[in-house]
UniProtKB/TrEMBL annotation, chain A:
Organism per entry: Trichoglossum hirsutum
InterPro entries attached to this UniProt entry: Actin (IPR004000), Actin_CS (IPR004001), ATPase_NBD (IPR043129)
Gene3D superfamilies documented for this protein: 3.30.420.40, Actin, Chain A, domain 4 (3.90.640.10)
Similarity comment text for this entry: Belongs to the actin family.
PROSITE patterns given in the database record: ACTINS_2
Protein name: NuA4 histone acetyltransferase subunit
From TrEMBL, chain B:
Acidic residues bias (residue ranges): 96-108
Domain of life: Eukaryota
Region (Disordered): 48-108, 284-320, 339-465
SMART domains per record: ACTIN
Residue ranges with Basic and acidic residues bias: 339-350, 408-419, 445-461
Organism per entry: Trichoglossum hirsutum
Protein name: Chromatin remodeling complex subunit
Family classification: Belongs to the actin family.
Family annotation (InterPro entries): Actin, ATPase_NBD
Biased segments, Low complexity type: 284-296, 352-367
Amino acid sequence: MSAIQSSSVPPGAQEYGGDEISALVLDPGYSSVRAGFAGEDIPKSVIPSYYGTVDTPDSSEVKYVFGDNSIHTPLPNLQIHNPISKDGTVEDWDTATKLWEYAITSRLTNFKASNPATNGLNDPAEKNVEAEIEAAGEGEKPLEDNPLLMTETGWNSGKARERSIEVAMESWGCPAFWLARNGVCTSFAAGKASALVVDVGASNISITPVHDGLILKKGVMRSPLAGNFVSQQLRILFSTSNPPIPLTPHYVVTSKTPVDAGAPAIATYRQFTTPPHDSFRRLEEERVLQEFKESVVQVWQGPGRLNSGQQGTTNEEVVKSWPGRPFEMPDGWNQVFGGERFRVSEGMWDAKMALTDAENPAPSQSQTIPALIQASLGAVDVDIRPHLLANVVITGGTSLLYGFTDRLNSELTQMFPGPRVRLSAPGNTAERRFASWIGGSILGSLGAFHQMWVSKKEYDEHGAGIVEKRCK
Amino acid sequence: MSNIISPGSQTTLAQLGLPESFTPAKLRIPTRMFPAEKSGEWEPCKIREIRSKKDKAKAEGLTADGGPPSKKEDVDMLDAGETNGVGSLSNGEPKGEDDEILYEEDPNSEEGAVYPLKEGRITNWPAFLALLTYVHNTLSSPFHTPILIIAQPAWTSHDHELLTQFFFEKFKTPAFCIMDSAMAACYAYGVGTATVIDLGYEKVDITAVSDFVTHEVGRGVAISGYGGETITQTLLELLGTKGWTRDMCEQLKKSNICEVLPQGTPLPGEPQNDTQTITNPAAAASTGATESGPGAPRVTVSDVDMRDDDPITKDGEDNDGVLDVASIVASGKTAEFLARKEREKAERAAAKKAAADTATTATKPARLPNSKKVRNTFWYEERRHAQGDNDTVNENGRRGSEQNGSKLGDDPKSQKTPEPETEAGTASEAKGDATGDTAMAEETEASKRGKEKAARKEEKRRNKQQLLAENPDILRKEIEVGVERFMAANGGILEGIADGIHRTVLAVEEVGFKDALVAVLNSKYLISPSSATIFTSELPSNLSTPLATGANTPQPQLPGMSHSSNVNPLLLAATTASNPALNPAASAISHQHQQHNLHSSHGQTPTSIKLAKIPEYFPEWKDAGFEEASFLGAQVAAKVVFVVDQGISKGFMTRVEYNELGPSGIHECSL
């Protein structure tokens, strides 16, 4: 019966029953964790990767706070951390496990599907439904009934991959597990088996060539010039402008009074006896910056770069003559932003244009998006380059910057005048932000995928190393 | 015909059938169960043991008095709690014992109560299912009745499946459907795009809805620590040092002297600036008396941003019955108001005749609005149990019972509200013969309103009266309180909720939709059944609905308006230039919030925040107020789904589908 299975051969289709297995899909990222049931069109549970800790003075025990509802409350001594490192891989596994568990259990939880044939409908005797339900509600481990599909970055280390399956199998008791590259998931979400995935997230830009559902590891490129970089550019812009622009988060403002554009804010501020930690203020400042990025920042849409141009005038001068966009800070300070709003995003494309200060030196040209794409394509087989260029998939929240796709299109056509370049960028913001989760959701709900799962049995037999062999 | 059940953390609403004109929920019971004698079984009421001959005699008298309905009632309840064979308890005669053991329901006790929902989440499944069974049995629906249940946003998809399984297998319902409470509120208000803020007992839910689709991402689900209870706790913090109990704070909160003053309004006794605190008499009349009688109009909707400027939506309606004629007329509910006043007067007169409290009332500064008084008083009712422990339980401490009475007048607990005044043995205003009068008034009231339940009601009431007679310790005290009563919301609750709204709306995606959402950003403070109910009228609201319905809505006030338009005009002009609809000049009630610079597709928003218009179609609802608007929405939805649509658009799950798909099929049916 239990013949020893080869670790590289997937089990037969019969081992998994119907399509209805309520698989969970978990897509962790630097700024948010997406979780939901496979087959749904949007992750039900999206929580920030940031979490808070509050030191209790009497004991050494640390209280964790997770989720949007809690981490934005200015508690005394609240510190904000992120279990994900700057390069998008997990740094603090213990907390990451807790955080992901929170993401899953707070909104989804497990479910034991009952077979309609045995659900008691045809039993003449009165069955105690309550007791049944009560029993179903008591699981020792959170995910004992749900196969878990998790995504990872293209550059995730082998150790981290093994850790993932350990967490899923040991801590959560998943019956089956799969680890998918988020680049592959994104291309699935766009309905493509081969694509060049441009993922512009919070901490990283990554370029992932995907061919026939597998990533081409040599071609995976990444750089930190993503959302957080733009935020940093904004901070530099605010601090270097004359007079400096105050960056006041919402939580310190009690009320504000309208002031003229550029005039100092007149606001009443909240007093704290024990203020939250600086990291909390930083998180809240990021919220203001995010609002700024969403509502003001713009990418020069091309052609050319911001500092190039025709007839003696640079594009920068052109945009300065365009009407500005107003922004009002939480404390009421407000101003109209003209050319600056293009400047802060230009560093992603042109390293020379990045704003710098003492702590933030200019990035190198090889870190910019056009250079990354060029390097990525240079690393893959020349035959498939045209195919990849015809299937460029854009994802990630930062790619929603106004004018981003136009600029990328213009840069690509300029770099590769010959081949046909076609961008695929969902207009729906949810699809853009959660593309890799959606791809995982599609994958997990495919009937054919059911035989791919790494089962608990296989894990017990082969150990964590099986993930390297099976999940390519 | 269909059942609608709306469980809340404190009160569960339910109704059988859809009348021509929708009315507020017929059945309102506290969401709590008591462990029965046998473990694993539950009772809807605390069952006490009484061991004495005298009690037995009384109980027998009672049974004779009330006749069979009493027994029936008890048996019903016990059945609901899944206890078989305990039905004999109501007779109180266990065989062959010298010491008579009598079991008695104590509807007021909270001792040992289990609240199966906490912050909307289901924390005790057995108790919750027992409660649902009890509700279902109380509705005594015929066998083939579709059921619509209003789901708390905090329920997970797993919970939905368990409930689906439970309803299909336990009640054999032919059709079942789960509706999100935020969606139900949208149905009630008839808006497809809105931000729904549901302020509950211990939590607040903030949901962005666009085109009748809730946005799950970024939804503020059960943000704990913001609710009616928070306000009570804040009061307790302020007043606890002065020897106040939680109950006292709870009642202070519900009394009409507790207000949330607009930001910047000086507290009485402090140096004042004269621009604010002008109260609208109409608002005062229409909202001030929220709990003073059945059918008292209540205000539901209030401003999204509670932090600043609002008109004072109510001022102290003085307890001694001074009538402000202008305000009554302005309120548009003259007849009702007068009727209520009449009643109150009668009661009061009865009390006054014999009582010594005339002095108290006379000394009160009658004309000064509450917000100008440094100190004000309210009536505190305290209830002690003769039997049982010395646990002091206030019968109105839980909001369910209180609303009961003020809404339908069919619940004995609240029916009794005036009685302490007349019966209080220790209080100075005790009055013997007033009891009869009051009871009479109530009886007419009851028969007028709840026809089918009249018999039971009466029985319960008698039961209650007897209980009262046995318990002379119902105290009614007048308690004076200082400016603390204006500080109820100082605990950061307003900031917290506002922040949650901000977050939720920011998380909304879809470029095209967002502009629409913001343009119609209907922000409501829907107060669901909660202890904070009374606060509906006190939540700052300088915005009215576009067409004021009169009594239910705080009237817009000019000082409030001018105070609120504190937007930078330049910014406003710039941001609204492209869309005249956004310009507040076009709409008198629009208003920009400084702290609510939410975001739209590309440009900072909102430039205006509006409240949803209160639906006016159903007179009964208009009278009752809209804290429970989601129940109205559920009625609308039930009508649409079960009657009009008949399952064409898969609004509900049928028996056949359940048999095919199992509980997880519920996710395929959406409302």
